[in-house]
Amino acid sequence: xxxxxxxxxxxxxxxxxxxxxxxxxxxxxxxxxxxxxxxxxxxxxxxxxxxxxxxxxxxxxxxxxxxxxxxxxxxxxxxxxxxxxxxxxxxxxxxxxxxxxxxxxxxxxxxxxxxxxxxxxxxxxxxxxxxxxxxxxxxxxxxxxxxxxxxxxxxxxxxxxxxxxxxxxxxxxxxxxxxxxxxxxxxxxxxxxxxxxxxxxxxxxxxxxxxxxxxxxxxxxxxxxxxxxxxxxxxxxxxxxxxxxxxxxxxxxxxxxxxxxxxxxxxxxxxxxxxxxxxxxxxxxxxxxxxxxxxxxxxxxxxxxxxxxxxxxxxxxxxxxxxxxxxxxxxxxxxxxxxxxxxxxxxxxxxxxxxxxxxxxxxxxxxxxxxxxxxxxxxxxxxxxxxxxxxxxxxxxxxxxxxxxxxxxxxxxxxxxxxxxxxxxxxxxxxxxxxxxxxxxxxxxxxxxxxxxxxxxxxxxxxxxxxxxxxxxxxxxxxxxxxxxxxxxxxxxxxxxxxxxxxxxxxxxxxxxxxxxxxxxxxxxxxxxxxxxxxxxxxxxxxxxxxxxxxxxxxxxxxxxxxxxxxxxxxxxxxxxxxxxxxxxxxxxxxxxxxxxxxxxxxxx
Length: 605
What we know:
Blueprint: H1 3-26, H2 31-42, H3 55-75, H4 79-111, H5 115-126, H6 130-139, H7 146-175, H8 191-224, H9 229-249, H10 254-265, H11 271-295, H12 299-304, H13 306-330, H14 335-344, H15 350-361, H16 369-401, H17 404-419, H18 424-467, H19 472-509, H20 512-515, H21 519-546, H22 553-569, H23 571-588, H24 595-602
């Protein structure tokens, strides 16, 4: 396509989008819907003629919009913000996904759309629009309310699980046999395959997050010394697209890479300035993305599927209200907060469009899911502000109409929840145990990542060493030894953490008032048993991960003996290396309250 045609298409997209979104902003409606409407106006299904010459170019730019949109969402991801709402937000999202996946699949089966359409429809309905709900809460000036903090935590978890869901859907779509009617074939996807996909995804997320937090913020700190905003913007975009390329090479979704690298960059102390620099670029390309969604919208299909749109809209509003609200209520936040959370989450948005596009690009879903997703998103987004406003008076009416005995039982339940929370020394011990377990998981994930990387690149390394005359067996040994040496600091650290955990659990679980004079012997047994079990598990882990590298069991036994001797001989050095890495990680994750001050210093001439 020539330059004049490209400029014409881009000019039409941006001008129409600007006019329509101006009207939407004037009437205080979500701007995202304005972008989609702009795409409908200039799309091929709107008479009298098509205004776009080369849609492939727009699709390419829309792909950049997806990357930048998800990267910006990742920038809003914060580990401390996530921890503040804890397990309540996580279980609310799980309940929401379970309910909406069930409803979406059931609706598809009821209308005879086929299994794969049902799976993707359920996934589309499971995802809440973080862009829309955050904008609505900000417009209503409710962002400091208790329910708003819960909602923000839920949408963060929602975005994370939506990325994982997209990876899982891609794997399922490429693994199953799909018939003409969209039915899953006989091969299907077993539970083991799904768990394997989730396990590899979780491992990748942990390893990438830890290594990224160790490397990326330090690189950005170095670039910040030059006090050049252009240099910082180019560096950040280079990191974003470079990491997305790595993720594509590993056969994961580019959306996963964009969100993950955004979350890693979010731990940088330059995050306020980075968010400010990336915002205009993101706004431009994300606008093109949503316009491209509108280009695929066929109003004729919407008329044909009007009744399903009504059914799905009701399912979204009531299903999400029930799922999220029930979990928040069970967690002891009260009926008013539970109702406001449930009402606030009753919509779908940008991720739903991405999932619909994914299904269509993979050729496993029908074209009518697009207009249905757009129509449901439009309706639910429009009613969300009114649902939040009616939550308070509705909760008061429900409370007033409830029998006094039931209200009293609810108050007793809240009191009971507060009473079972660990207090004093028990709370401190629980916090120590959680921290140690998390550290052990991270260390073992890094070890697994090192061995998986060795297995992945072993053919290349063996081929390179063969040029220098090394045999295949010696080359495999070299790969294995390198993987073990790199893993030893993390294995020793995990073993040391488990020894500490065994002592803490021995002291907290065995009370002298119960065990009497047997308390100390039992504590010693527990303190020695956990490290012994850990040692056996570590050995089995190394054996399992070595199967793809070492050719014979005899070689593995010999090398394990050498590794144990090497680990014992250099244990202090390896512990120092791990301590430095852990200190660097903690330093990166420290409180970034002074980041605004650093941005002001950065902008000084």
